[in-house]
Design a protein that fits this description.
heterodimer, A: alpha+beta, TATA-Binding Protein, B: alpha+beta, four-stranded antiparallel beta sheet
Chain lengths: ~110, ~90
């Protein structure tokens, strides 16, 4: 909550840092899950998006060029058509609960 | 729980970092958390802290720290506590 242009405003932390000229230091975590799934990586990504939509109802889940985003959480699938896929799950420190939930979901899926 | 509702994630109890962690302090805090195998290498815009026994790399740069952690959740929580202890934040 801050005074801006003589008005009380709610600003998120990024807006506050911009207002007062502070550069945030972003802390990001990345972990890898190995997943046996033949076919192109983008098909695996589409399956993961469907799974996340089922488990994270109400969240905005987007996919672009095979990369899935939920808030600051990014999920990227890499691998050849017939090989094990590497799923990279990455999230900022502020989204620890969401990131670790998604990582746990993917880890339980491959076990 | 199996389900996570919008608004649940702990955005408010994770401190917002305003600068890079002090690397010497970070190594001390990692050791305090039981992650005492840190090796530090200088990089172009910061350094790399390697924790080989815990399959973890921390790329510490001026505007960002990227943690590549293949360890279990308790290792990541120890890393978060160590980073919070030596990073200027609000």
């Amino acid at each position: 909550l801050c005074v801006k242009d003589n008005r009380l405003s709610f600003l998120d932390i990024d807006e506050v840092c911009d207002e007062i000229g502070i550069n945030r230091h972003v802390i990001r975590f990345t972990s890898t899950v190995r997943f046996e799934d033949s076919g192109p990586a983008i098909k695996t990504a589409e399956k993961l998006k469907t799974l996340l939509e089922e488990k994270l109802q109400g969240w905005c889940i987007t996919i672009s060029d095979g990369n899935i985003s939920v808030e600051s959480v990014l999920i990227k699938v890499e691998g050849d058509n017939d090989n094990t896929k590497n799923i990279y799950v990455s999230w900022t420190n502020q989204d620890e609960d969401l990131g670790s939930y998604i990582l746990g979901l993917l880890q339980s899926m491959v076990q | 729980s199996q389900w996570l509702n919008p608004g649940d994630p702990a955005k408010i109890d994770s401190p917002v970092a305003l600068g890079a962690p002090d690397v010497a302090a970070l190594v001390r805090e990692l050791a305090r958390e039981g992650l005492g195998d840190a090796r530090v290498e200088a990089g172009a815009d910061g350094c790399i802290v390697h924790l080989p026994r815990h399959d973890t790399l921390l790329h510490v740069e001026r505007h960002a720290t990227h943690v590549f952690c293949e360890g279990r959740a308790h290792v990541r929580q120890a890393l978060r506590r160590a980073l919070a202890a030596c990073t200027p934040h609000v």
